[in-house]
Write the structure tokens for this entry.
Amino acid sequence: MKKKLIAGNWKMNGDLAANDALVRAVIAGMKDAACTVAVCVPAPYLAQVQMLRTGSALEVGAQDVSQHERGAYTGEVSAAMLKEFGVRYAIVGHSERRQYHGETDALVAEKARVALAAGVTPIVCVGETLAEREGGKTEEVVKRQMAAVIHTNGHCISEIVVAYEPVWAIGTGRTATPEQAQQVHALLRAQLKAATEHSGRIHLLYGGSMNAANAAALLAQPDIDGGLVGGASLKAADFLQIVGAAR
Ligand code: 13P
């Protein structure tokens, strides 16, 4: 069985002093972790966290990446730049970027492609809004989002990480039940299986109000291979409890 993956998404939080304390505490507490542990940090702090993690098993991720390789794209950060700083993962298509920055399925798919080409593993986020769930459209929406990524990435799709993050569960304290999450994970698994014979190696993470209390039940589901953790990743004790539940 593959190791689970627990990735923190700090979003736009942190400062030099807080990051230092948080990363040191996470590293100290994850010594016996049975899973892979990563923190996805704001771009200016990548170098800081990269230095702090030296000699530990903690992996570092970015929260976004440009779809362009280089050039006149003010404000953008390329996949090659991330790679130079030892960044292993880049979140792409987070619902906050789809919602506030107008990122489309095609753009997200392209970002995943560019990350893979540079040797950075994209954590591709998919998920439905509350209105879509209540309208019975969950399956249609997540399959459409996933299909775009499969279409653009062909056989390389086996190298990505997928995070199912129902938008209504993000930052709301309203977690999907383990059954609700498993149901969507199972259909994503089936979709990926039809696209690549190596689908078994793809990590399917759950994200959305995952915390120390609910992590174990979510992670016990057969198709949930880890978590993408927002708020609870900012507190070392909470994050480490989730890490401890991933075995
Ligand atoms: P919360 O864990 O704060 O709900 O955030 C989830 C998320 O968006 C992770 O990417």
In short: The first helix runs from residue 16 to 29. The domain at 5-245 is CATH 3.20.20.70 (TIM Barrel).
